Amino acid sequence: MPFLDHLEELRWRLLWSILALVVCSLVSFGLVYYFNVLDLLVEPIRKAYDDPDLRLINLSPADPFFVTLRLAIYGGIILAFPIIVYHTWSFLSPALEPHEKKAIVPSLYLGLVLFVAGMALAYFAALPVTLEFFKAFLTTSLEAQLEINATLGFIVKMLIAFGAVFELPIVILILSVMGLVTPEFLRSKRRHAVVLITILASFITPGDAITLTIFMMFPLVLLYEFGIFLSAGVYRRRIRAEAEEEAVDATTLGPPAGSVETR
Fold first, then answer.
1. pLDDT digit string (tens) for 161-220?
2. Full-model pTM
């Protein structure tokens, strides 16, 4: 296709993706409002403070609406993800090799599964422990006044952070498909990766060493090893494809010029 035709296709793909995001955000707004998702996010705080009737404070009449709107946008992104993936894939797939297509398509949907798994780990395991850790610093001279924007902002950021770092195998897989990293390189840098994972986990999961190890470091190390496994699979498939191409070329070209066939 000519360059201008590519731009035109890109424009329509972006428009359809934005439209899907808007529609899914509207649907998500209804889900967040009628199924009281806000109450689900407040529940870990109630358990941490041993107060089943705990309520967050809003400093403006518009705060509840804008908080619900932000949650709806987050939900809309998740709902629209398959549509966005479809349009992204439709635009990029003509430029990819067959083995790259086979590797990237499953990885995009696996990335969504890993993102949700990371958020679930944060909500059910890491978030309660983190809230207990921060609560331990309250003294008799302090009174907890939990404001809705700051409190929910902290919770949502933690959920998104866990979901994002769980994308590590997908990043490794895509880099391997592009030829930027190899399984041998990843294995040789395993110690460096553990150090970087420790630093990253200490920022994302405040708390004691046990919390840091169980809820972030251990899963990330497993995800790094899983990424090495995926990278090795990509390179095995690439070697197999190159061998098949060489066999086809040898069959097509026949014997070298000047050779004598003997009986």
1. 888 888 888 888 888 877 788 899 999 989 998 888 888 777 777 655 566 666 678 888
2. 0.77
**pLDDT for res 86:** 79
Query: CA 226 to CA 230: how far, in whole Å?
Result: 6
* Integer CA distances (angstroms), 160 to 2, 121, 202, 229, in order: 39, 11, 16, 25
How far is Cα of residue 38 from the mean position of the Cα atoms in its chain? Answer: 23
Rounded Cα–Cα distance for residues 127 and 211 (Å): 10
CA proximity to 117, closest of 215, 187, 224:
215
3-class DSSP assignment, residue 146: coil
Residue closest to 166 by CA, chosen among 209, 224, 108: 224
Instruction: Say which residues have a Cβ less than 8 Å from residue 171's Cβ, sequence separation at least 6.
Output: 227
Distance from CA of residue 43 to its chain's centroid? 24
Residue 180 DSSP one-character state = S
